[in-house]
Target: Hypoxanthine phosphoribosyltransferase
Amino acid sequence: MKEDILKVLLSEEEIAAKVSEIGAKISRDYHDKNLLLVSVLKGSVVFMADLMRAIDVNAAIDFMSVSSYGSGTKTSGEVKIIKDLDRSLEGVDLLLVEDILDSGKTLHYLRDMLSKRGPKSIRIATLLDKPARREADIKPDYVCFEVPDEFVVGYGLDYAEKYRNLPYVGILKPSVYE
Ligand SMILES: O=P(O)(O)OC[C@H]1O[C@H](OP(=O)(O)OP(=O)(O)O)[C@H](O)[C@@H]1O
Ligand code: HPA
Ligand SMILES: [Mg+2]
Model:
């Protein structure tokens, strides 16, 4: 697994420090709100697990599973809903939790769809932002790290369902997918 990684971009320690910082900021912003954290599966599962424990105000959680990359490194552009939310969004302050904002198509689609369900507010928290690749008009509210235009894996992010369990974020060797 490790032999497929060109370079470690973000170490476990760097990620942990930044996630605590962002968690504290979210806690300050949401202390008087009705916070619902929605993790967009599967990529955001590791970030969600760490971020929710860095938040010290009341927060409910839910999960939604979508997929647009299939087993490749380019978005299909089509967002498939694999699992919807279990609960209503009426009156909640929704915070969408993502691992990466790349073309932006996934979050653009989700934000549009979920905004029709009556939440009081919607914001986006992402571990990684890859602004060089943006195609949809969407900006995150909380970002842990900006990353270069490279395919990254680890800490939840996959290539063909592999590497999600790496504890750091690394650049995948192009020879793996070319
Ligand atoms: O900004 P975009 O170009 O839309 O890309 C970002 C999305 O793509 C990845 O999900 P993927 O479809 O690979 O599903 P996964 O989370 O199960 O890996 C990633 O986890 C984000 O959800
Ligand atoms: O760089 C990436 N790595 C893994 N999954 C992704 N989904 C969008 N961009 C990426
Ligand atoms: Mg993926």
User: Anything to note?
Assistant: Residues 43, 69, 158 surround magnesium ion (ligand 3) (CB under 6 Å). Residues 104 and 136 are 5 Å apart (CA to CA). The helical segments are 12-29, 45-53, 105-115, 174-177. Residues 12-148 form a domain with the Rossmann fold fold (CATH 3.40.50.2020).
